[in-house]
Amino acid sequence: MAKKQYNIPVKGGDRLPLTVDTLASSGDGIARHEGYTIFIPGGLTGDRVMAHIVKTTPRFAVARVVERIESSPHRTEPVCPVFDDCGGCKFQNLKYEQQMAFKTGVVTDALQHIGKLELPFAVTPMPADPVYHYRNKGSFAVQKPGNRLKIGFFKQGTHEVVDSEVCDILVEPINAVKEWLRGLLEKHNVSIYDERSHKGLVRGMMIRHSPVTHETLIGLITNKGRFEDGFLADLADATAQKQFGISGIVQNLNHEKTNIILGPRSRVLAGQDFLTDRLGDLQFHLSLNSFFQINPYQAVSLYNLIREWVISGPVVDAYCGNGGISLWLAQSGTKVTGIDECIPAVEDARKSAKLNGLNGCRFLQGTFEQHLAKPKTLMPVKTLVLDPPRKGCSSGVIAGIAKLNPERIVYVSCNPSTLARDLALLKESYTLKDVRMIDLFPQTQHVESVVLLERN
């Protein structure tokens, strides 16, 4: 059988003018030349650019912008001075109303084209407020090429750190703490990890901050080894502890050759290994590796919507993490069973339940599939809440839902593609009643959605 012939009208190194027609789900611009698709990172719908082809494949090419000939009417000036290099945000150059339209469109397209679902209603957008300074956690990479200490996020598609003093989507105290730590690392000439040689101590840092309690938890992520006494003394300085509201400083040990941020073991360097955060009337016990919504302002909107959709009766909260949704529902008197395979997350959830005096929820450690093997221990279930990771629900979970037979399913998703796949598998038994695109991550291409299903 003869191989299919592809028309590739460009080659690497070519320069040509292109008009961006639309945006891919990744947020990259898409242009077409003689019917051939060309992805243009940084391009926005309506941009007219001079493009340099950097990669070709039989089906598409990738180009970089050499010159912007004409700007999109949707374009705005990014506030970040390193926006063009940093991979942390993708949409600071896109007006916010267009960010919302793009994300709502991504959810709609996924449900219709991947899930083959009929939508008798439009996807409802839930915009964020504020759209800057909302993230309550920052995870920073640390490098030291030559004599320059760089702390920030990776340049898109690389392992090169883009150094920045301020990140505008973080709550401001995180930036201040990061720069304080930079000063201490430089003052004491602390060795910095080199991923090529696998030598050096500090690999990164993670900083949590509560805008409500004003507590800060610091994690210094390191290779094998210990910090010198002088550095530790400055870390524990009482003036700094008070200034930044530091509840604790933890050294997290990660000596594997891996891209995973946190290692399996930690030790306390100062204070305690957790902070107390608050959402509404609830307090949360958060350790360094706790899963907690990074946008607390939108988290309240999300949790209130879920509470509105849950019907009277017992709830199972699969993939419960540190129990945010479970506790939010339990404070209204709902009986909730939360399930998560992460032991520290379940421990945090139990501590938070005790902290809030909520006896109507229980937390079980293990995968949802493991607990579905004994469905009677979870029944009866009126509402099932699903909030899986990006890969969505496993086939075992989809099959196991029939055993629980809940009247309603509330599905929270951070990946429209796997959401659409899973909804297609459930459509014989459940009807789609509502879809919301809730913007938890303004200025980025990340899309969060929540859907309501009712049993047929």
Feature tags:
30% strand, 7-stranded mixed β-sheet, 8-stranded mixed β-sheet, OB fold (Dihydrolipoamide Acetyltransferase, E2P), alpha/beta, single chain, 23 strands, Rossmann fold, 456 residues
CATH superfamily of the largest domain: Vaccinia Virus protein VP39
Tally of DSSP β-strands: 23
CATH topology of the largest domain: Rossmann fold
CATH class of the largest domain: Alpha Beta
Beta-strand residue percentage: 25-35%
Structural class call reads alpha/beta
Major β-sheet profile = 8 strands, mixed
pLDDT average, as an integer? 95
Number of helices: 10
Unreliable stretches:
none
Which sequence of strands runs across the widest sheet?
7-22-23-21-20-17-18-19
Radius of gyration: 24 Å
Q: What's the assembly state of these chains? A: single chain
Global geometry: globular
Helix content: 10-25%
Distance between the termini: 47 Å
